[in-house]
Amino acid sequence: MTSDPVDDRSRWWEGSVIYQIYPRSFADSNGDGIGDLLGIVGRLDHLRGTDASLGVDAIWLSPIHPSPLADMGYDVADYTDVALEYGTLADFDSLVDACHARGMKLLLDLVPCHTSIEHPWFVESRSSRHDPRRDWYVWADPAPDGGPPNNWESVFGGSAWERDEATGQFYCHTFYPEQPNLNWRNPAVADAIGDAMRFWFRRGVDGFRVDAIQAAVVDDQLRDNPPFRRPSSMPGLDPGRAQAWLWNVDRPEVHDVVRGLRRVADEFAGRVLVGELYAPVERIAGFVGGTADDEFHLAFNFEMLLAPWDHGELTLAIERAEALHPPDALPTFALSNHDQPRHTTRWGRERARVAAVMLLTLRGVSTLYMGEEIGMVDHPKLPKDRRFDRAGRDAQRTPMQWEPGPGAGFTTGTPWLPTVDPERVNVADQRSRPGTLLDLYRRLIALRRESAALRRGTHRSIFGVAPDVLCWTRTADAERVVVVCNLADEPRTADLSRVAASGVVLLSTVDRGGDVDLRRLDLAGLEGLVISLPVAES
Ligand code: NOJ
Fold it and tell me: What secondary structure does DSSP assign to 467-497, as a single string?
């Protein structure tokens, strides 16, 4: 068992690339069709440690704990164990060791706001109104008409309240009814979750992605939400809601919860907490950095992920992230995850190359979702009997495609979800050929690691260089680069004379290199370019 982090550099995550693994779908070592921890161990070469590896800095595993899978693992039934189908704690220890041996960090998913209805805490809590754990969850009496205590909606639709027949009260669930909200106003809950974190930190885990933290606290008076809402400033955010979620999420008290989590993380050296909040940047920015720097180290920012392929929207997604975080905080960017359609499906596979340049040359921390490096797309039409997620997110959770063939190198058995054209889209094929999307991701990550400017340099956007063209500089010490992304299918000619007269191509999505004239820079349709600049011209 490893208890020392691989390196204690403070802020090791600055400029890092995190790779999200959906454990059920990454690699299956025992042929049962379900991914597992030893499967991940067997595939680490893909991620880091060899010349052909992607070279990511850390992996984040979606939940691996025992769970009845009402929300595919985000309904945890035991915070300090590994689900049988994923392996054992000993397998987990081997995974930690194998990651650290490669200089790679390992993050787990912490789901602190709700448990499974099968978690022993909830089983006890619902057993009687007088149970000592009753107050670990959010219970309330019915309204006078016998209905739910108030009008709150749940994320996946319907009331956020479920009636418990035996005790005659309702419990609150911000997500599925199988995910009762923990009551973070009760200090015993903070202690119990803190102990679960310590359990994994002592096993060598380098941090947590903290799930849905805005749901940690609800109004103590359970006041109704107004049945009216303004459109969100963030395209794609919560489109189905009929009310303004004012009293059930994002309560000011959530900051105290996060401070408590941070205190636990700070008991250990070099650990990171990445908060997940589906909210516009101005909201998430309040949870990171700042003078006290006592909340999350990082917070996911979904504005780019939820944006349409539109020059203005992507410009804003970048600029808002840069402008609205506190000066010392690092922004984060991602294009895909297990909750949203993949960007190759939303935006189209042909845009994946220039999108990768955008993602991996921005400041802060970039997160990849497994499979995006080979251009995997959502399953176009899952048969009814192969659907598991009631919220319809299976299509982006299909197994990783390692090789051609029936199990796609993912399993020797029958994959739990069908694969999507592994004959054409797989790692083995792309690893063996230069110029593939995988090769581009690898080169971009290598460049990001080698370049101080890309890894930790400042960011400055340059507007108006050409229609549909995004452009920014990154500068650190004596190094300066400019990134140019043509979002249009057609060629464009950009005027970068305000940046410099000339530069040297470090990387392009098309086959080109050498010196370029920045006063008249011809770009191919959907070309992404990273150009080194003479420092003197800054
Ligand atoms: C966010 C997770 O990413 C998602 O998969 C889950 O359904 C909710 N939080 C609830 O835990």
Answer: TTEEEEEEEETTEEEEEEEE-SSS-EEE--T
